Amino acid sequence: MSGEPGAASGRRVQSVLFVCAMNSVRSPMAEALARHYFGKSIYVQSAGVRKGERDGFTVSVLDEIGIDGSKHKPRTLDELDDWEGLNFDLIVSLSPEAHHAALELTRTMACEVEYWPTQDPAATEGSRDKILDSYRDVRDGLSYRIRMRLKS
Fold first, then answer.
1. Domain 15-145 falls in which CATH fold?
2. Spatial CA neighbour of 122 closest among 134, 108, 139, 137
3. Which of 11, 33, 73, 82 is deepest in the core (most CB within 10 A)?
4. How far apart are CA 151 and CA 45, in angstroms?
5. Is the separation of the CB atoms in 65 and 40 below 8 Å?
6. Regions of the chain with pLDDT less than 70
7. DSSP three-state, residue 10
């Protein structure tokens, strides 16, 4: 359950689920980045513990690097389970609440869980530029970790 980039059980990840509190900022950002880099070879989804709303800053910072995040519809783990079931090789939790939920899923699912503590940029206060910089920091940190962890 290591959170270190590149930590692996020795087998290639074929499906990954990113989970955060509300599927509004961190997990949809991670999903979009992972799909951008590995979408042809790895099945990628995201969900939240609770229902959230689409976040405009997330869409903006993804757009800056050529990724369209505007079509994302936040969903909960329960909604994803109802829609397609939960069957993933790897679950990456991005918040403490999400990590607890991910560990609970291992009671009924054989998968690897990694905790990547990621600040919530939505909690940033100040100017629009300061807030956007916080979102960019999260985007760039997730981008690096995803590329290191999921590369073949």
1. Rossmann fold (3.40.50)
2. 134
3. 33
4. 17
5. no
6. 1-10, 152
7. coil
